[in-house]
């Protein structure tokens, strides 16, 4: 890692944004960001390190701000622009860094703050969603096949944040809304981690924080709500973020952080989509500052997170979940009428906010990976930081093999589910001899929840929908990962 040395005094003069962030009308480029970060570094207070390179060789920067020495025990990790064309989170982080550099008291002494403002510099350079290899980084948290997500997770495992935030943007003016003369109402949204392996008390604390931020945004004049996906009311399904593990929010959550996603709303089809960038950045900054919390809140969240990291694994693993509306509750969903600017409240029973578990399996004590597939799995295990053993000699174990029935390709319109669903059948447990070369991944390790998310063969979504692993999954044959008891 390289320390970028420069004077703090030069920072303000070289900042590529106005003194008032609310006046922002254009996003900061990679080159401008790099120059700014070089200027703002100050040993002992603000350090800037290179944590790797993108597919096309651009540096991936991590900014570390800390002024309290040993008092700084509450670790926070903000990261942005996994999607290169989603800019407001990055700009909010850079202006926040500038403000803390100029006014150190803005950073509480007990906060240890890390920021990765631009995870996807290649995509940012050409204003495209994917990275230089054409990969969607926010769908690469399972494989960690891309250098950008590998670097992101290396940082997260090293610092083990108590709180993490993934930063994105969504389109307010999608085609389905436009046809009705509407646009999505909120300009800033936030949602919490929701994967079943994350402790319920952490998820509740995160949702409480999502709700409690509303008055702050209202005071600033920003339309704010919990982040949802889906189409316009009343007919389309509207639901919270996915409960799957291949995104940053749930990925960081199962590393043991109180994890959030923030998304600001962009008018993609406007003559100037960045005309309201300053407002989006302001909404972001309100949430970034708010999530640093009060001393009492930081102490509480730190205690909850450290409790969760000590929790034993649950006796069962949820393998099939979906969002539903229990009892058919009617909700009012706000939209903005474009012609009048009026905010409308549309009643709907298609707001799905209840996470339902449809299937579960007993938690094994380890996973066994067939020797023939070991070479394909080892890079994933290493990228995830998982401990594993390569058998030097045969070993007898009690094993449960899992057979693939089929991979379902089509999008599921009924349950609003993605493609590549893995339909499997568990085989009876039996004594078996594992040959030398088999990989054993135990679940008595610190990252056991990540191991389950990556390897559990009964998950509805998993490795076998990805190139390089799809070839290992043949209908009617056993999958290369088995469950050990």
UniProtKB/TrEMBL annotation:
<feature type="domain" description="Peptidase M14">
    <location>
        <begin position="26"/>
        <end position="291"/>
    </location>
</feature>
<dbReference type="InterPro" id="IPR000834">
    <property type="entry name" value="Peptidase_M14"/>
</dbReference>
<keyword id="KW-0378">Hydrolase</keyword>
<protein>
    <recommendedName>
        <fullName>Peptidase M14 domain-containing protein</fullName>
    </recommendedName>
</protein>
<comment type="similarity">
    <text>Belongs to the peptidase M14 family.</text>
</comment>
<keyword id="KW-0645">Protease</keyword>
<keyword id="KW-0862">Zinc</keyword>
<dbReference type="Pfam" id="PF00246">
    <property type="entry name" value="Peptidase_M14"/>
</dbReference>
<feature type="active site" description="Proton donor/acceptor">
    <location>
        <position position="263"/>
    </location>
</feature>
<keyword id="KW-0482">Metalloprotease</keyword>
<feature type="region of interest" description="Disordered">
    <location>
        <begin position="229"/>
        <end position="249"/>
    </location>
</feature>
């Amino acid at each position: 890692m390289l320390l970028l040395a420069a004077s703090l005094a030069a920072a303000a003069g070289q900042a590529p944004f106005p003194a008032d962030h609310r006046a922002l009308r254009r996003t900061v480029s990679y080159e401008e960001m790099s120059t700014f970060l070089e200027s703002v570094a100050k040993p002992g207070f603000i350090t800037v390190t290179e944590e790797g390179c993108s597919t096309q060789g651009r540096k991936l920067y991590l900014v570390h701000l800390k002024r309290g020495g040993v008092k700084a025990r509450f670790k926070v990790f903000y990261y942005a622009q996994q999607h290169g064309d989603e800019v407001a989170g990055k700009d909010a982080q850079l202006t926040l860094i500038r403000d803390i550099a100029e006014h150190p008291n803005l950073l509480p002494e007990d906060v240890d703050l890390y920021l990765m403002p631009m995870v996807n510099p290649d995509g940012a350079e050409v204003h495209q969603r994917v990275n230089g290899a054409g990969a969607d980084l926010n769908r690469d948290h399972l494989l960690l096949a891309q250098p950008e997500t590998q670097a992101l997770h290396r940082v997260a495992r090293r610092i083990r944040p108590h709180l993490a935030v993934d930063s994105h943007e969504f389109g307010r003016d999608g085609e389905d809304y436009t046809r009705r003369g509407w646009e999505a109402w909120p300009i800033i949204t936030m949602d919490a981690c929701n994967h079943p392996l994350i402790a319920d008390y952490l998820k509740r604390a995160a949702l409480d924080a999502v709700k409690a931020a509303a008055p702050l945004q209202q005071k600033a004049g920003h339309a704010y709500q919990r982040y949802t996906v889906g189409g316009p009311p009343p007919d389309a399904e509207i639901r919270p973020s996915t409960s799957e593990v291949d995104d940053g929010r749930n990925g960081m959550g199962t590393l043991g952080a109180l994890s959030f996603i923030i998304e600001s709303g962009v008018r993609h089809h406007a003559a100037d989509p960045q005309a309201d960038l300053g407002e989006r950045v302001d909404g972001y900054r309100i949430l970034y500052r708010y999530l640093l919390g009060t001393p009492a809140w930081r102490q509480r969240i730190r205690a909850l997170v450290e409790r969760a990291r000590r929790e034993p694994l649950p006796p069962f693993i949820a393998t099939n979940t979906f969002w539903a509306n229990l009892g058919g509750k009617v909700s009012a969903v706000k939209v903005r009428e474009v012609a009048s600017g009026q905010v409308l409240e549309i009643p709907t029973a298609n707001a799905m906010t209840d996470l339902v578990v449809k299937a579960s399996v007993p938690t094994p004590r380890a996973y066994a990976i067939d020797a023939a597939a070991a070479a394909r799995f080892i890079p994933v295990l290493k990228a995830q930081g998982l401990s594993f053993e390569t058998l030097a000699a045969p070993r007898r174990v009690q094993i449960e093999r899992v057979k693939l029935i089929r991979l379902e390709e089509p999008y599921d319109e009924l349950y609003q589910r993605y493609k590549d669903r893995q339909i499997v059948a568990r085989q009876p447990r039996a004594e078996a001899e594992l040959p030398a070369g088999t990989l054993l991944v135990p679940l008595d390790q610190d990252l056991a929840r990540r191991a389950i998310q990556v390897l559990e063969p009964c998950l509805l979504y998993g490795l076998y929908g990805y190139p390089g692993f799809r070839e290992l999954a043949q209908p009617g044959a056993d999958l290369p990962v088995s469950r050990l008891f």
